């Protein structure tokens, strides 16, 4: 598989994964909010407290799912985009040149 096809596949799969993370986060978050608002008519019970705490946990998990989705999409776009760019025939790519130039400009201690 050549670099452009691999880069495109990585970007597409990363985007699909991120969408699924966002959908899961939304579903878990809305269910958690509903569970956190459960109240009994008789007063505070152990079951009510349990479901409220589980609901708050589900909201936290949904936030984690959103963060994971953002991480997946940015990583896949970065890595896939790097594969889509034309390859530099030199072993010394531009990032290494910039780092080396910045290092050479540092004053001696």
Describe what is shown at a glance.
The protein has helices at 3-36, 46-84, 94-104. It contains 3 helices and no strands.
Characteristics:
single chain, about 110 residues, mainly alpha, about 75% helix, about 0% strand
Structural class: mainly alpha
- Number of helical segments with 4 or more residues: 3
Q: Which percent band covers the strand fraction?
A: under 5%
The tally of domains stands at 1
Mean pLDDT: 84
Number of DSSP-assigned strands = 0
Q: End-to-end distance, in Å?
A: 49 Å
The share of residues in helices is: over 70%
**Shape from CA axes?**
elongated
- Following the backbone from N to C, one meets helices and strands in this order, namely HHH
Low-confidence stretches: none
Largest sheet: none
The rounded Rg comes to 24 Å
Describe the structure.
The protein has one domain (3-104). It has helices at 3-36, 46-84, 94-104. The chain has 109 residues and is an all-alpha fold. It is built from three helices and no strands. 77% of the residues lie in helices and 0% in strands.
SSE layout and pairings?
Elements lengths: L2 H34 L9 H39 L9 H11 L5
Helix pairs in contact: 1-2
